[in-house]
Design goal:
269 residues; alpha/beta; Rossmann fold; three-stranded antiparallel β-sheet; 8 helices; 43% helix; binds S-adenosylmethionine
Length: 269
């Protein structure tokens, strides 16, 4: 198992995840709707983080349903449980577990949702096998993960930005996990009795000033510190990137194409 989760779990990353969920929540709600998430269901949010998607799922399943968020980070789990308490949400709980040792009741869940988690862990086939056991017959696994991170593109091309993106890509390459995990998942679904009902690509194009633009902006600025720590970016390269970003944003028709993702719904037969 990978020892350190590469993106970290501090307050800045927690805030980033909150913003990230706002940017992508329309896509999440859309998949949940097409996958049949509705009142009264028992849902597991695998690698839930602090619970931004988890609480939205809880509003859909209502008081007669339940949502369990599972994450390896105790800080995120504590945050989620605290939020549930202060908001008076009774159908959500967060528990601290590794995705590799879930130790949850088999056949309990109608829906298992997983977003931006399988790219950061190894032994994904074992995880899918366990997901299949955790689902009720007829239950559905809903996934949104990276398919081709290298499609991330920022126009106009600037060498300062290119250096940042290449450093990110190098950091994914040195991880023991596979960032572009999504295309490998359907074969695993088939192996473990999950029938693929829906497959689609998802990506966004944005211009400066739009909310989507802020998503990669925040990520690159935050992650640059990690890249320096990892020895994949120099302080000078980061400074050059930070200096050039506002200039790039001021360029007419500047554009970001987000990394290609895929989404799936796979039902237990
Ligand atoms: C990019 S965040 C995504 C969080 C959430 N799924 C979302 O979409 O907002 C990845 C999450 O995976 C969790 N994670 C990483 N490795 C894990 C593991 N081995 N077991 C359980 N959770 C893990 C991290 O703590 C983090 O909360």
């Amino acid at each position: 198992m990978k020892k350190d989760y590469i993106l970290g779990t501090d307050q800045a990353e927690l805030d980033r995840l909150g913003f990230q969920h706002r940017v992508w929540s329309e896509d999440a709600f859309s998949l949940w709707k097409r996958g049949g998430v509705r009142m009264g269901l028992n849902v597991l949010d695998l690698g839930s983080g602090p619970g931004f998607a988890t609480f939205d799922l809880a509003t859909i399943v209502g008081a007669t349903g339940s949502v369990t968020g599972v994450d390896i980070s105790q800080a995120y789990v504590d945050y989620g449980n605290h939020q549930a308490q202060v908001r008076g949400v009774n159908n959500v709980e967060f528990i601290q577990r590794s995705i590799h040792e879930l130790d949850l009741e088999h056949g309990r869940y109608d829906v298992i949702y997983c977003r931006w988690v399988l790219s950061w862990v190894n032994d994904v086939d074992k995880i899918i096998q366990e997901v299949s056991k955790l689902l009720k017959p007829g239950g559905v696994f809903l996934v949104q993960e990276y398919a081709q991170w290298g499609t991330f593109r920022i126009e106009p091309e600037r060498s300062e930005v290119r250096a940042m993106i290449e450093a990110c890509r190098e950091s994914w390459r040195v991880m023991p996990s596979e960032i572009d995990i999504a295309p490998q998942l359907p074969a695993m679904f088939h192996r473990f009795g999950l029938n693929l009902e829906l497959k689609a690509t998802i990506e966004k194009v944005s211009s400066p000033g739009e909310m989507v633009w802020q998503w990669p902006t925040t990520f690159l600025h935050l992650y640059s510190h990690k890249l320096i720590e990892m020895g994949l970016l120099t302080e000078e390269e980061r400074d050059a990137f930070v200096r050039c970003w506002p200039e790039m944003e001021a360029t007419p028709n500047a554009m970001i194409i987000t990394p290609l993702m895929m989404e799936f719904a796979a039902r237990k037969t």
